Every structure is written in structure tokens, then in C-alpha cells.
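Hi,

I'm pasting everything inline rather than attaching a file, because the server keeps stripping attachments. The sequence lines come first, and each chain or strand is labelled.
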Amino acid sequence: MAAVRCIDICKTYLQGDQEIKALDHLSIEIEAGGFVCLSSPSGGGKTTLLNAIGGLDKPDSGEVWIEDQRIDTMSKGELADLRLRKIGFVFQAYNLIPVLTARENVEFVMQVQGLSPAMRRERSTELLNEVGLAGLENRRPAQMSGGQQQRVAVARAIASRPTLVLADEPTANLDSKTSDGLMDLFEELNTHHKTTFVIATHDQRVMAHVPRLVRMLDGRIVDDIEQNAA
Amino acid sequence: MNIILRLAWRNIWRQPRRTWLTAGAMVFSNVLLVFMMSFQFGMYSLMIDNSLQALTGHMQVQAPGYVDDQRMRQTVADVGDLSRSLREQLASDTIAARAQAFVLASSDERSYGIAIIGVEPHFEQKVSNISGLVSKGRFLSENDAAEIVVGAVLARNLRVNIGDELTILGSGVDGSFAAAVVTVIGIFDSGVPDLDRTLAEIPLGLFNDVFYMEGAGHHVVVNAPTVDFAPALQAELEALLPEDADLVVHDWDRLLPGLKQAIQADLSSSFFMYGVLAILVAFSVLNTQLMSVLERTHEFGIVMALGLKPGRLGRLVMLETVMIGLLGAVIGALLGSILTWYFSFSGFQIPGMEEMAIQFNLPARLYPQVTALSLLLGPGIVFVFSLLAAVYPALRLRWLQPVDAMRAA
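And the predicted assembly:
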């Protein structure tokens, strides 16, 4: 079963008087356990597509499926539940909750899921170790570097054991060394946890890293390449 | 601690100055409310006690209709026996019989129309504080002696002093002419102008003889240990009255309707003021929480993307308000009770209240008293208003779209 299926989706925005087609009859299928990079110039539609897949925004037409669930017709509450159980997000600006420590940021989603304190602690320790942040559990975001914050964000994204992780420009604020480290981490998680990764980026190094590269332009897919990852 | 609780607690300290300003408004209001309510409730209690202690008592056994039309003929038969019987059955000595008439009191020089009350000297001292207010001479002691105790203003008006004689002229219960010559043995000064000007007391035995009462009287005054016990005692008393006696028991509220009305009027105007205060605090909370929600819109978008439902976000905002509210309530109630405790010893005088104080036989200095009600009611009202004010910012989150929220700066 495909992890993600978008069928003929369209999304139009109004910018002043001008109509912008962010997604233009776009269809894509991403297999479970896939590692896909969406690439486009700015305004090419990759973030809009990511938002549609994550249930953060609804397309004007077409269908979006996550596994066997059609999500473009779901209510706000159903979408929130779906995101909580199946989807993890990694954002360009990390977007950690500033008043919570690294551990609490990771545990936050698990608490919302209703996991017990012992389970949360065990899993957060394990995840922070996995992303290389052992010993930094009690630091708040402001006390960590950009790379460390992004690692916390990754740990948070996978804390709920999602089947799909959506990452929007995850390396945009990171130096090259940290970016490479993050991509290695994504790959490792993809390999070990069989988590599907969909990454929107225009970072060439990230594009070179992934086995499948989808190029977009003006809301359409112009290229869909299977490649040997670096 | 639960992460959501920790998050709420830390969120309110993101802008400590704003939080303290909001909590400070609550603290100020709560201190004021605790003090004012303690002061008011203490004053009401004093007003009731002092007004009732002077004459009315907590309740009275009367003939039906006497309360509205105080005619001589509306009597309670064998009032002394009834009073004695009730004292025995209730095992209480705060029960006394009385009779009352309106007479012309004349000294050598002047005459005035006054109310004269026949009292059981020994038991009257247990139900009324007039005996304790005798500033010259002494109170009545014998049940048949031709003696009278008069108010200070009346004594001044009649130009009589201790040992002088007064002639009282009136109508007996049968409509016949009633007259007696009595010696002034005491002058009381209650501080209530109406009482001091128009009231005199004579022994019930003498009253019985002068007004041809044949053992009847007009009411039996019954006091409970405190006014709070009055309703229970009234029920007990009603059950004890002989079925064929055709008597009624009226509580102080029925006997002195003006007192309760005055308290209610004062309460209404005070609570209007308190309501305005609570609304002002509520607006402060509304401002704080609305600002807090608006500046965290992006963050709310993120947590919604992580799977938090808008309703849960709303509950987070409410939880933050509960925390600020509790902070204001606890500190306010604490400071308010300390302030009230201080004034409960040193007393407090409100300028311009002298007239009301005289009317209700209140002392010039009032002493507020902290009770559970005065401690909790004001902070409780402010707390509820604060929660209501936070409903709008919390509800706004329901309409928030994650993708729009995340675009916010």
C-alpha cells in the first residue's frame, strides 16, 4: 500500500488580484518506507504539496490519501488525530516550544497521545540518544545550537512513531556539516524504522542524498527521478 | 508534573511583567473585596445584633395581627405564665413577657406622648440591653414597684431626674381611664434618638394593674444564642405553643422589616460596585490573554501541526488563566485577610457613616471580621469573571487553521 497518494490535486491562492496556481492537477504516489525529495524553485508548490499531504491545508480539488485514509474530506479534529498518530513534521525554523526543555519537547507529543510518564521518559531518552543529544535533555531551545535544535525537532517528529515524516526545508538554517549529519540521521531512521520521509528542499546536497527526486515547477511535477543515493 | 501544566505555568512567565500586572490587578481587587466584605458582613451582624438587642429580640410570640396593628386589645392571655412555661420547656432564660401602651407622660413642667413598656425586670435584662445602658440610677428590680426607667432625651425633655415623679395617663385594655404616678429610678442612654426620646419601661406587674390587663400582655420576646440559631428556635417555639392559644411567632425580619431592607439595599449597591471592579479585572485578563494568544499564533500553528486539537489549545489558555487567577486569588485573599485582621483589632471608622451608625445603634468604630464567606466570595467572583474573560481568546483558537497560524510572524 502506498504511504501517500495524491490524485489530480489543485490549489489556487489569490495574491492581490492575481490567481496563483500552487498545485496544478498534480498526482503523485509515494511508497511506504520511501525517501523522497520534493524540489522546486521558490513558489514552485513543494510546501503547498507538503501541507496538503500533512492535512494542514486542503486542496481545492482532487484527492489526498494517507495509506488507506482519504484525508482531504476529513474534519479538523480527524486531521489532528491523523497527524498525532501517523505524521511527524520537521520545519525549517525548528519550531520547538521555547519554554520546554529538549526532553519535554520530545515528550509533549507523547503526552498528547496519552502515553504514561514512564513510557514517555524511556522513549524520549532513547530518541535523544539516537539523534546524538544525550546529556542535553534538560536544555531549552535557546541554550542549543541550530543543529541541536533541529535534532530535537527530528526526535519530536518521530516520538509518536509516525509512519510518515514531512520535512520542509530542514537544512535551510544549518551549515553544510550539520546538514549532512541531519540527512544521515534521516536515512538511518528511514532504514531502521521504515519511516517514509518526504523532504521539501532546494538544497542540492539534500537532493543528492535521496533515492527519489521529484522536481516541481509552477505546481506541476516536471521530473520524477529514481537515483542512487550518495 | 504533567507537561501541559508545566507548559501553562512557563507560558504565563514568558512575559512576567504582563502577568504580574494582571495578577496585581486581581490582588488589588481581592484585597479590597476581602476587606470590604469582612467589614460589611461584620457591620451587618452588629447592626442586627444591636438593633435586636435593644428591644425587638430575635422573635416574639404575639396575637395574630398585632405586628401590623398594635392595639391594646390584641393581647396574649396570661403572658407571664406563657413566658415562664416557655423558659422551662426550652430550658432558656432569654425569654421575657412584655406589655405595651401609648401614654401621656407628665412631669411637673411638661408632658410628652411616649410608648411605655411593661417588663419582667429580671428576665428583661436577659433579652434587652437597655438595662445595661442605664447611665443614671438603676434598672427596674421589683415586679410591682411604682418605678419607671426613661430614655435620656425624654428625661431631658420632661426635665426630670432620678427620684422625680411622673404621671402617666392612658387607656386600659378595656378602654377605661388608666393613670399612675411613678418614680424615675433610672435613665438610659442607648444612643438611638428614637428610643431615648419616646420610650420608658415599668415593671409588668405595675403595668398589669394600671392598664387592667388581668394577666395579659402583648408579646413574649425570645432570644436565640445568636441570630443564626433563630430559625431553628422559631420552629421549636411554634411547636411548643398551645394549639388553642391563637398565637403567632414572628422573627426579627418580620418585626423589623426596615433593618433587612437597609442591609439588602446596602448589599445591592455594594455588589454593583464589586461587579464593576470584577469587570475591570476581567478586561485586564481579556487583554493579557488575547495578547498572549495573538503573539503565540505561530506556535499554536506548530502544535496543531503536531496533532493538538484546537479544543485542547483552548483548554491550555484557560489553564493559564486559572493559574493567574489562583495567583491573584491566593495572594489577594492572604493580604486581604492580613489587612482585615489588623483592622479587626484597631477598628475602622468610615467618614459620613455617623448617621447610619446612630440609626442602627452601631459604635463609631467598626471592627471587620474575616469569615470563610468574606474571604472566599470576593476572590471567587474575580476568579470566575477572569475565567469568563478568557473564554473569547480560547474560543478564537477554534477557528485557527494550522497553515494560516504557521504563516503568522
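DSSP finds 15 helices and ten strands in chain B.

If the labels don't parse on your end, tell me and I'll reformat.
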